[in-house]
Amino acid sequence: MNSKSDIELFDVAIEPWIPGAIQKIKKYCTEGANPNLVCMNASTTRGPVTKGLTLLTHSVHEGAFRVDLVGHQIRNKQLSMLTYLFENGMPYDVSKLSSAVRQQYIPAVELLLAQGIDPDRPDDDETMLMLAASLGNMDIVKMLVKAGADVHRYAFDNIEWTASFVANKAKHKDVAKWLKSQMSKEFFAKQKEVVASRNPKFRNLYKNATSAEDLSTDDIVNKLEQWDKRFGIKVKKSDGCSLSILFEALPENIEEFWDEVIDLCPDIDDNNKAVLHQLETKKSIGLWWD
């Protein structure tokens, strides 16, 4: 037989998007209500409740993803409720670990890693270890490494852009030093070999990891090296997603050259008249990737 708390939980959980629902769900669960009760016949403002689903499953499908129950507990540092949700089957993914790292909420990071989440986020360039390193949080950095995060992973196809590099760039010297101590001599030798093979003229592009979603730093540098041989260029400024170039000589056929520019930087096409005018009058051009 359902308790009063079970019934009250059902009334709230079938419409978890309503303001205040999270607080009530927490209250009733604390009082002993069972989130795994099977849904009864009912309807909501969004349609009928699917009979046979548990309240927890219904909440996930019909509103919890909007309310983001797990994310809410992480943001508000509600460890007991977060633990309760996991114990009762609430789904989670790698984005929640990323959120916990970003919030620097260590108990949630520990809890999520204990669920078996891969700390390396293999499908993304920037790992959670890099995120923790950029924040300078030594405890989380060590926690992620202990859980299997690869200290040798690098972003943007740039062998220098490791978590240690990110920490150093953010001026977290102690974190950078510790991460470096965990890296192998073989990796450092490979780094040195790759860096030595690069054109020193474009060193800052690698230092700033100038790249785009579908263009690595190497891709951009390869094109710049072609232009340098043909016209002579100097990179005046670069950051992670833009650079400005000064030409020693202009291309004889500006229109043909402009097609090359658009191929390298499609975003420039939205403002091509102004950029083309700058090239023709000042022998300079700014490139950017959104």
UniProtKB/TrEMBL annotation:
InterPro entries recorded: Ankyrin_rpt, Ankyrin_rpt-contain_sf, Dendritic_Spine_Reg/Scaffold, DUF4253
Domain DUF4253 as annotated: residue spans: 212-290
Secretion signal, residue range per the UniProt entry: none
SUPFAM superfamilies xrefs: Ankyrin repeat
SMART domains, per database record: ANK (SM00248)
Annotated keywords: ANK repeat, Repeat
A Pfam family assignment: DUF4253
ANK repeats: 124-152
Protein name: Ankyrin repeat protein
Species of provenance: Arenicella xantha
